[in-house]
Amino acid sequence: MSDILDVAVRLAAVFVAFLVLPLVLGQTEHKVMAHMQGRLGPMYAGGFHGWAQLMADAVKFAQKEDIVPAGADRRIFQLAPAVALLPYLLVLVVIPIGPGNAVGEFIDAGIFFVLAVLGIGVLGSLMAGWASANKFSLLGGLRTAAQLMAYELPMLLAAASVAMAAGTLSLPGILEAFHWWWVPWQIVGGLVFFTAGLAELQRPPFDMPVADSEIIFGAYTEYTGLRFALFLLAEFAGIVVLCALTTVLFLGGWHGPFGADGLGPVWTLLKTALLAFVVIWLRVSYPRLREDQLQKLAWTVLIPLALAQIALTGVVKVVIQ
Amino acid sequence: MTGTADVTALAANAHGFLSPAGVEILFLLVGIVTLGAAVVTVTTKQLVHAALWLVAALGGLAVEYLLLTAEFIAWVQVLIYVGSVVVLLLFGLMLTKAPIGRSPDADSGNRWAALAVAVAAAAALVWVVVDAFRATWIDLDGAVQGSTKVSGESLFRYWVLPFEALSVLLLAALVGAIVLSRRDIDGGTKKQPGTTGKAGKADKGGKH
Questions:
Q1: Is the pLDDT of residue B120 over 90?
Q2: Mean pLDDT of all residues belonging to chain B
Q3: Hey, how many other C-beta atoms are within 10 angstroms of the C-beta on A79?
Q4: Residue B189 and residue B98 in one domain
Q5: Which of A73, A116, A295 sits opposite B100 (nearest CB)?
Q6: Residues B176 and B109 reside in one and the same domain
Q7: What are the TM regions of this chain, as residue ranges (chain A) (predicted)?
Q8: B82 and B129 share a domain?
Q9: Which of A174, A219, B57, B201 could bond A140 through an S-S bridge, CB–CB 3.0 to 4.6 Å?
Q10: Can you tell me the ipTM of this complex?
C-alpha cells in the first residue's frame, strides 16, 4: 500500500511541476524579453507586474473556437498536439532533482529513455504539418524533419560522452559519480548538447520550422484555441526539460558549493532557471539561421566537436584509472 | 541463451507452457495489438497513416521488449525506429506530396508474392525462436537480465565479432551512399542544373 502511495505522490509531484514550471517560464519570457527590448511587458493581469497574464491567456485560448480545416485529416490533426506534449511529461518523470531517490521513477538506461522519448515529440509536429492540408504547414513539417537529422546525432554523441565519464546510463547514477572538475572536462559536450537541444525545440536561432515571418507558424498555422495552446505549452515544457537535462548531465544537477543534502533541489532548479534565461536571451539577441546553415553547423561543427569530446573523455578516463 | 540445460529443464518443469500469469496475458495482448497495427500498416490505402501505424507497431514491440525485461533494447528500439526511421519515412512521404485521403494506386501486383514471403519469413522466425527459447523463463524477482550492464557485457564479450562485422557493413553502406549521392566524383565537376534533387544530401558529404 505504501508503495502505491509513494508512486502516486511522486507522479503527482511531477505532474504539478509539469503544469507549473512551463507557465512560470512563459511569464518569465514575457517579462525578460520585454525588459531586454526596453518595454515593460504585461503589467495589468493579476495586479502585481501582470503575474496572471498566462492564466488570462489560457482563458482566452479556451474560449476560442476549435477549428479543423475542411481538407484536413481530422483524427491526425486532433491527435498531433497530444503527441507533441506528452513526451515531455514522460521525460520529467525520470529527471532527478535531489540526492538519494528524489526522482519520479528510477530507470536504468535513463539517457536512452530521455532521448528516445524526446524524439517522439517531433512526430507531433510532423503529424500537424502534414494533416493540416496547408502548404505552409507542410513546409514547417519538412523543416522539422530536416532539422531532426541535423541535431539528433550530435545530441546523442554529447550525451554518450557523459555516460562514458560516469560509467552508467542512469541519470541519478551520473550525478552520484559527478565531481566538480567534470564541468570543465565536459564543457564542449555540454555546449553541443544545449545547442542541439535548442534545434530540437525549434527555438531561436533555430526556429526555421515555425518562422512566422516566412511560413506564418509552420506546422501550427491551422491550429486554434486549446490545441494551439497545447503546442505552445509543449514548447515551454520542452525548454524546462532541455535545461533540466543539461543541468543533470553537464552541470552537476543537485551538487552545489554548499548544503549538498538539504539544498539539492534548490541547486537543480537554480541551474535550470539560469539555462532557461539563456534560452530566452538567445531568442531576443540572435537572428534566425537558414535550414542549410543549421545542417552545415551540425555536420561541420557540432558533430566533430562532439566526437572530439568523446575522444577527450576516453583519454582522461583511461589516464585517471 | 547461455543457461545450462538442467536450469532450463527445471524452469520448464516449474512453469506450464503459457501458464496465464498477469505479465504473460499482457504480453499476448500487446502482441495482438502490435500484429494488428502491423497488418493495418501494410493494408491501409492512406500512405501517411501507414507510417503512423508503423509507429504503433514499433512502439508495441518496444513494450514487448520491456515486458521481457530487456529495458535497454526497448529504449534503443524507440530511439532508432520511432525517433529516426519513421521520421525519415515521413520526410520522404512529405517530399512526394502524399495526399490526404486514399491513394487508389497504393496497391501492388506483387501483394500475393509479398504475402507468401512474409508468411515464410514469419514461420521461419517463429520456428527458430520457439525452438530456442520454449523452455527459457525469465525470473522476474531475480537479478535484471536485460539491463544496460548485462546487455553491454554479453555484446562486447560474447558477440563482439558479429557486432564489429555489422559496423563494417554499415560503414560500407555509408560510404556507398556518399559515392552515389556525389555527382562530381568521376571526371571533375559535371553538375547539371536541374538535377539537384539530392543536393541537400550531396552537399553534406561533398563540399565542406
A1: yes
A2: 76
A3: 16
A4: no
A5: A73
A6: no
A7: 79-98, 110-132, 153-175, 181-199, 228-254, 266-285, 297-320
A8: yes
A9: A219
A10: 0.79
Q: Does A196 touch chain B (CB under 8 A)?
A: no
* pLDDT for the residue numbered B36: 92
Q: Does B147 fall in a domain?
A: no
C-alpha cell at A194: 544545449
pLDDT grade for B198, boundaries at 50, 70 and 90 = very low
Tell me the helix, strand and coil percentages in chain B, rounded to 5: 70, 0, 30
Q: What is the spatial distance between Cα B69 and Cα B58, in angstroms, rounded to a whole number? A: 17
Domain that holds residue B44: 5-141
Residues from chain B that touch A129, judged by Cβ atoms under 8 A, are 94
B115 and B196 in a single domain? The answer is no
Predicted TM-score (pTM) of this structure = 0.81
Domain range list for chain A: 2-320
Q: Which residue has the cell 549521392?
A: B181
Question: Which one of B141, B171, B198 terminates a domain?
Answer: B141
Side chain identity, residue A242: L
**Which of B46, B47, B52 to mutate to test binding with chain A, by most A CBs within 10 Å of its CB?**
B52
How far apart are alpha carbons B57 and B42 in whole angstroms? 11
B58 with B134, same domain: the answer is yes
Domain co-membership, B165 together with B135:
no
> How far, in Å, CA of B101 to CA of B47, rounded?
8
| Residues A244-260: tens digit of each pLDDT | 999 988 888 777 777 66
Examine residue B31 and state whether it is found in any structural domain, yes or no. Answer: yes
CATH number at residue B40: 1.20.120.1200
Residues B133 and B167 in one domain: no
Contacts of A299 in chain B (CB under 8 A): 204, 208
- Please tell me if residue A130 touches chain B, with a CB cutoff of 8 Å: yes
Burial category of B60 from C-beta neighbours within 10 Å (exposed 0-12, middle 13-18, buried 19 and up):
buried
